[in-house]
Amino acid sequence: MTLYEELQARGLLAQLTDEKEIAELINAGKATFYIGFDPTADSLHVGHFMALLLMKRLQAAGNKPIALVGGGTAMIGDPSGRSDMRQMMTVETIDHNVECFKKQMSRFIDFGPDKALMVNNGDWLRDLNFLDFMRDYGSQFNVNEMLRARCYVNRMQEGLSFLEFSYMLMQSYDFYRLYHDYGCQMQFGGDDQWSNMLGGINLIRKKDQKDAYAMTISLLLKHDGTKMGKTAGGAVWLDPDKYSPYDFYQYWRNVDDSDVLKFLRMMTFLPLEQIDEMDKWEGAQLNTAKEILAHELTTLVHGEDEAVKAEAGAKAVFLGSGSLDNVPSVELEAEDFNENDEIDILSVLVKTAQCASRSEARRAVTKDHSISIGENKIDDFAYAIKKADIPAEGLLIKKGKKNFKKIVVK
């Protein structure tokens, strides 16, 4: 099976241009390709994770990835799939986020000599001359065609600013610069980026007709961003300080039965033959498949040791076997307790981030009846925990069937 055939078999290809050229380039390990990452936070999340895994897979076959961090485009914000305008960030915040991205990406991509590149589009976008840019590159875009682009649909209904409208030009110019400066022939991206990616291809083909047709190739990474990588508490971050290895493990351990085989194919490096055998599994065997998925992905992000700890913590909570040492803990400090050395349950739930606010915590206690301490259901929002009643090994706080945190006294 060729690399291209494997990508097809794993369900990673959604839309693409110039299929024959794409297959030949990546199979021969001769593709230089890029994926863009706008640094809108100080950590990558699961939506980026799939892209990083694809880069890792292609790099292992000899292809050269370029990780493009959007130090320039992040100052505008991609309107794709949004109904509101992104919050503006300062240059200092963006640059800090870029540095955070670099550290995390190095876990997946080998940035050794001539193996991969990390490039910041702020290097060329921040100092652009507006008149020169619009004359040389804006003139290549048809506004009527742009308005039909999928990436603008949601924003058009609420009111699309010219700032956001220019995002396609910025991303297209990124591809043009990478093509000329680094010999990059391909762009990869999520399915919401298709219009922007075509813009880059068309720009190169219009301005460099003799070279561009066979080399400006766009490959689409398929993922369901609305379903994957989101929880009730927000995004699933790759930074262990923002989203613990235990929670990361549990996220994948709790995927729907209908998704587990799909994610095993798309995101793990297990042989397809092994995954195909799991197609026959049903009932309790699907839980085993979920454990395999959770272990493999947690290992990729956090390492084998953290995956083993997360697995042990899950068994301690759900099966009652083993200690609670590996369950994520939250330290309570002296100022968290009142003058009677007590802390109310609403404060605990906010402190453990199991609820985003006291009002949400109150609903969880009194309306949803989803809060337990140990095996005891808590229905009184005024319930208080005495400092003296918290064992040295910690006290388990449960929200629903799958959200567990341990509180300990510092």
Explain what you see:
This protein has three domains: 3-221, HUPs (Rossmann fold, 3-Layer(aba) Sandwich), CATH 3.40.50.620; 244-318, Tyrosyl-Transfer RNA Synthetase, CATH 1.10.240; 329-409, Structural Genomics Hypothetical 15.5 Kd Protein In mrcA-pckA Intergenic Region, Chain A. 45% of the residues lie in helices and 15% in strands. It is built from 19 helices and 15 strands. Strands 1-6-5-2-3-4 form a six-stranded mixed beta sheet, sandwiched between helices. It has a five-stranded mixed beta sheet with strand order 9-15-14-11-12, covered by helices on one side. Strands 7-8 form a two-stranded antiparallel ribbon. A hairpin with a 2-residue loop joins strand 11 (371-373) and strand 12. The termini are far apart.
Note the topology.
Layout: H1 3-9, E1 13-16, H2 19-27, E2 32-37, H3 46-60, E3 64-69, H4 91-105, E4 117-120, H5 122-125, H6 130-136, H7 143-147, H8 153-158, H9 162-165, H10 167-182, E5 186-189, H11 194-207, H12 209-215, E6 217-221, E7 230-231, E8 234-235, H13 245-253, H14 257-267, H15 272-278, H16 284-302, H17 304-318, E9 329-332, E10 342-344, H18 345-351, H19 358-366, E11 371-373, E12 376-377, E13 384-386, E14 395-399, E15 403-409
Parallel strand pairs: 2-3, 2-5, 3-4, 5-6, 9-15
Antiparallel strand pairs: 1-6, 7-8, 10-13, 11-12, 11-14, 14-15
Helix pairs in contact: 10-11, 11-12, 13-16, 13-17, 14-16, 16-17, 18-19
